[in-house]
Design a protein that fits this description.
The structure holds 2 protein chains of 2 kinds.
Chain A: E1 3-14, E2 17-28, E3 32-36, H1 43-50, E4 55-62, E5 65-66, H2 72-76, E6 80-83, H3 95-102, H4 109-122, H5 124-128, H6 139-151, E7 157-161, H7 169-185, E8 189-194, H8 197-203, E9 206-211, E10 214-220, H9 221-226, H10 228-235
Parallel strand pairs in A: 3-8, 3-9, 6-7, 7-8
Antiparallel strand pairs in A: 1-2, 1-4, 4-5, 9-10
Helix pairs in contact in A: 3-6
Chain B: H1 2-32, H2 39-55, H3 60-83, H4 91-113, E1 128-129, E2 132-136, H5 137-159, H6 161-171, H7 173-178, H8 183-209, H9 217-230, H10 235-255, H11 264-278
Antiparallel strand pairs in B: 1-2
Classes of the chains: A alpha/beta, B mainly alpha.
């Protein structure tokens, strides 16, 4: 298996405050990896550092190419789609415009049209609401839209920041089912940050546990889920 | 009754100019969250460029198009040189930047073309429009050009990818960057377009107010009033606000005793204050809710 994303000694700063203290991890092509940890552990910061949305040092390589010192909008062009915390919906635009924006860096208009149809097949509710303002969608629908918007890039890697946040348990199950399907069928590698550790471990194959800006545990998702000590001390269930 | 119709139509004609200025103000406000106090001076300078071209013998419409292109490039240059470095600066720093720009452009125009009033031609003539005494061909032309411009802008923002990208960059910049939009260049493009729109307003109003370095002062205040009335967050509102302010200004000047021509401008200022007190978001604007 080849390494798609390799993060080495990542340190990130918000002003004078250091949020990540030399964090290293890697993600294999085709895998579904989860980053777990409590509030404030540095999960979101890690994702933001990958997309250069926060000041950081260290080496981040994607498919062997360094991402450091590239702008956020350039990093997207490598095929990295980031679904930010809070979903980042373009609330004043229609559902369909949100999907078109996901593909704004692509030039193949025929491919974009067919991909929008594909998204409607994945998420039928979006088709029903395609002319509606995205801000009028429910939280779950907006999360579906955010995932669909990210997929419109035809990404190689999708970064998801707390997709379960604020959603009803049934909706979360649904969403995670779709994520698993996208990972298997569309061969999109996924890095998902979650507070809902139990669910994320069911879905993922690899897992890392972060505490105060450092990786404290890594391994096969099943092993971590079965290790009672880790679960109790770090994941709280 | 004829006086009333006449005043309404004339109001729509000048309202078209206010709509353009308001639209230019709103476009820049949407992009960088600041009011461009120099918008009027930029339009004035563009108008002088077109006048100079015509002095050199360039026909009207060629000068018009060249001026549009010049304004577009100049707007981008101003953003890149002056306001991009100020992007993260406090509000007052930006305000100082706008005032500096205002003063520089105003004095430069005065230096190059001096402060005497100049005649500015109209390509439409000033005969009665379609034989009617109600409106002149130039006024009809002002309305016509503005309507064409607004339709063009509507199609640009609604149906082109770059228009979509510009709207996205203005509404949620962070998400826009995450889908790969270069938001910094979208802001520059917004400046270019706003400056070009302003230059159209300048060239259309110059035959009415005559050409001189301070010609846009009053027009810009009406433009601000229009933008505030329609809502600073709504381009559509800015346009509606422009026409409303134009008509309101004329009717107030005609029918409210004592207002006349001299007190028209304070009316625009009173309008700005009333809207800000009664309905700060304007007729079509959104309330900005910020998390703290």
């Amino acid at each position: 298996m080849t390494t798609l994303l390799n993060v080495k000694d990542l340190r990130a700063y918000y002003g004078q405050v250091q949020a990540l203290h030399g964090l290293s991890f890697s993600l294999n092509e085709g895998s579904l990896t989860t980053l777990l940890g409590a509030n404030g552990a540095g999960k979101t910061t890690t994702l933001r550092a990958i997309c250069n949305m926060v000041r950081s040092t260290g080496a981040i390589e994607f498919d062997g190419k360094p991402l450091s010192n590239r702008s956020t909008e350039n990093i997207v062009r490598f095929g990295i789609a980031h679904v930010p915390q809070g979903r980042g919906t373009f609330t004043t635009m229609t559902v369909e415009e949100n999907l078109q924006l996901g593909a704004i860096t692509r030039k193949d208009s025929a491919g974009i049209v067919s991909d929008i149809e594909r998204m409607y097949a994945h998420f039928p509710v979006l088709k029903q609401r395609h002319t509606q303002q995205a801000g009028t969608l429910s939280g779950g629908e907006q999360q579906m839209l955010a995932v669909a918007r990210a997929l419109m890039l035809r990404p190689r890697l999708m970064l998801l920041d707390e997709p379960s946040f604020g959603l009803a348990p049934l909706v979360v199950r649904d969403l995670f089912g779709i994520l698993g399907k996208i990972n298997r069928e569309d061969k999109v590698s996924i890095l998902v940050v979650e507070q809902n550790a139990q669910l994320a471990l069911e879905l993922a194959d690899q897992a890392y546990v972060i505490e105060t800006g450092r990786i404290v545990m890594s391994g096969n998702a099943k092993d971590i889920a079965n290790n009672e000590e880790i679960r109790k001390s770090y994941l709280g269930y | 009754m004829e006086l009333f119709t006449n005043q309404v139509l004339a109001g729509i004609a000048t309202g078209a100019i206010y709509a353009c200025m308001a639209l230019a103000v709103v476009m820049i406000y949407q992009a960088i969250d600041h009011l461009n106090f120099a918008q009027g001076e930029m339009a004035m300078f563009s108008t002088f460029i077109s006048w100079q071209l015509m002095q050199w013998g360039v026909p009207y419409w060629a000068a018009f198009v060249i001026t549009l292109a010049f304004s577009f490039v100049a707007g981008i240059a101003i953003e890149r040189i002056l306001f991009k470095p100020l992007a993260k600066a406090p509000v007052l720093t930006n305000v100082a930047g706008f005032i500096a720009l205002y003063a520089i452009i105003n004095s430069t125009a005065g230096l190059l073309w001096d402060f005497t009033i100049k005649q500015y031609p109209t390509p439409f003539g000033s005969a009665p429009f379609l034989g009617s005494q109600l409106i002149s061909t130039h006024q009809a032309g002002m309305i016509g050009v503005t309507v064409l411009l607004l339709l063009g802008l509507y199609f640009f923002f609604q149906y082109t990818r770059i228009g979509l990208a510009m709207r996205a960059a203005a509404s949620v910049p962070e998400s826009a960057r995450l889908v790969g939009i270069n938001t910094s260049w979208m802001i520059a493009l917004g400046w270019g377009m706003a400056t070009a729109i302003g230059s159209i307003a300048g060239m259309l109003i110059a035959p009415v107010v005559f050409l001189e370095p301070n010609m846009m002062g009053g027009v810009l205040i009406y433009g601000f009033a229009a933008a505030v009335l329609g809502g600073l967050t709504s381009p559509f509102g800015a346009v509606v606000g422009g026409f409303l302010v134009g008509v309101f200004e004329n009717l107030a000047g005609t029918y409210i005793p004592g207002v006349g021509n001299e007190l028209k401008l304070p009316i625009a200022l009173a309008l700005i204050i009333s809207v800000l007190v009664v309905k700060p978001a304007g007729l079509f604007g959104r309330h900005i809710v910020k998390r703290v």
